[in-house]
Amino acid sequence: MIRTVLAALCLALVSTTSPSVPTSVDAYVEQYRAATGLPGVAVAITKEGRVVHVAGYGRTATGEPVTADTPMAVASVSKSFTALAVTQLADKGAIALDQPVRRYLPEFTMADPRAVKITVRQLLNQTSGMADSAFHEKSLPQPRTLHGAVARLRTAMLAADPGTAFSYHNTNYQVAARLVEVVSGRPFAAYLDGNVFGPLGMRHSTTIDTDRDLPGTARGHVYVLGRAVALPEPTGFGNGSGGVLSTAGDMARWLIAQNAGLPGLLSPQAVREMRTPSRPNDEYALGWEIGRTARGTPVIEHGGDLFTSTAHQLLMPGSGYGIAVMANTGMVYSDAHALMTGIVAIIEGGTPQVPSGQPLILTDVFFALLTLITIGLGVRGTVRARRWAARRAGRQFWRLASYLVPIGLCTTIVPIHRILAHGRDAAWVQLAYLYPTFMVWLVTAAAAGLAVIAVRLRGAARLRRR
Q1: Domain range enclosing 44
Q2: Between 9 and 286, where is the model more confident?
Q3: What does the alpha-carbon distance between residue 321 and residue 298 come to, in Å, rounded to a whole number?
Q4: Residue 107 pLDDT > 90, yes or no?
Q5: Mean of per-residue pLDDT scores for the chain
Q6: Do 366 and 343 share a structural domain?
Q7: Sign of the dihedral through C-alpha 257, 261, 263, 265
Q8: Are residues 282 and 374 in the same domain?
């Protein structure tokens, strides 16, 4: 059966189609890159059993050309692969989706007694009750293995009763990947190699644990003042939830197999179950989101965001099209999603919108100027410290408290962000990737305020001694 699948995919990969879509997509992607400064992107487009277009554009963070065979991070698109692995085990009778996770994974324990009711399905459709608001998965110390990702839940609480609320939470899929390891008796990467990547001929694809495992080609960028700056991905754990690396060529094989109903990998009933949402969220199934295009065409899709790269995949069951996009810029800019929207417009006979530039450039300029002003005020405040101390000898030192505001904001920015982001968690250094010029200003203001306080208090102490 595996040989049959490989043969079918090989035939599909050499098929041809009308040149209009590839030509239009090439032109659109290059216009988009010219307008935004996007360094590199890979695109795969398929239709039913054939490849329409696979291509790479621009360069990687290490300066190499992006090609159809360049491994790039697919981020949370990985959840579709994890869901497939779990559903395969259910399809074979090794697990049951509606049984408690603890039945198959005894090491899965939480401080909240309600956790014993969490089912396998609830992990995959993100209704387990686990959420960023109750378990700060990104700002806590990061695990290095799937076993460690599950072990750190022992002191965690739930945000809701299992099955009653949807909350997108990466830990759900890390637990699911660990379940695959324990039930199959194989490391998660080995399981995917033997049961997903291998059968589909995805020779350049794998899954990794942490940011330290990212190859140079899969590293990305952050825009600062309109320029893409290559940066390492901040510390984080992503296996099961966001660890897959793939290429445009491999994603074409994945899309073809998905539109064909995953022959040899899943039964038709299991495929339907994986793509059918259930309450309380009718838009999220098992590792796939159910939606529509701007023209109302039903689609099955999933996006993915890292702090230095983004990805998006989309299936159009009615027409048989499949699209995958991987961009090497971070989640703030949503380049992969924006490009996906434009490519869908081309396929549906419309005209894609090319952005006029980067929407955050004015914000960056504002905070860059504010940083320079803050530095100037900090220097002025320290230079005039002795004069200030002489005027306020022994009185009104409470006015120095205003300089503590940036310092206080620096130390509380993580919980503040959590409130503003409706519970979504992020570590301090990750906020620097999300809001680089703002964080530079904030750190500068805190350092300037601390310097002014220290110099003025020292000047006042010297006057008192005299």
Answers
A1: 2-93+129-347
A2: 286
A3: 12
A4: yes
A5: 92
A6: no
A7: positive
A8: no
